[in-house]
Amino acid sequence: MRQNSDTSQTLDAAVNQALEARFDFLERQKGEFTIFAPKGRISNATVKLFKDKIYDAARYNGCKIIINLRYTVLIDSVGLGVLINSHKTADKNGGMVVFTDVPERIMNNLKMLYVDRYLHFAPNMKQAAKMMSW
Description:
- The protein has 134 residues and is an alpha/beta fold.
- The protein is built from five helices and six strands; from the N terminus they run H-E-E-H-E-E-H-E-H-E-H.
- Strands 1, 2, 3, 4, 5 and 6 form a six-stranded mixed beta sheet that branches.
- Strand 1 and strand 2 form a beta hairpin.
- Helix 2 packs parallel to helix 3.
- It is globular and about 55 Å long.
- The termini are far apart.
- 27% of the residues are buried.
């Protein structure tokens, strides 16, 4: 059975809407740290809901950003691109992004891609704060 373009676009829109409905994004300032905690999928369908906030924080000179991934269930290639770009932007501006509480399945995938050699990871938020105590 072949779908026409309108049907395919309608199905894509419905799937994206369902994914967005399950996604949440928390942002909090705690002292010198900006903390982000995405919940759900970090994907092509959801990055538009938070990437500007992360990029804005990463542009701040000497920023200290903690991204807690405890409630993240999936990171696709677009989502990974946003996380890498936030790291690069912060680094360029003398800041740092540390990812914490990464679920084992996601961390295994990041290691397989050798991303763990490039990004900063800590087992928890307390350790992330210690990494940024300069």
